[in-house]
Amino acid sequence: MIENIYIYNKITNNKLFKKELNFMQHGSYTVYDHSIYVAKTCVKIAKKLNLNVDYNSLVKGALLHDYFLYDWHDNDEIGKLHGFVHPKIAMNNAKKDFGLTEKEENMILSHMFPMGKSIPKSKESILLCLVDKYCATKETISGNKIVEILKKANAKLTPYSLFILTLIPSCFL
Question: Contact 110/121 with Cβ under 8 angstroms?
Answer without folding.
Answer: yes
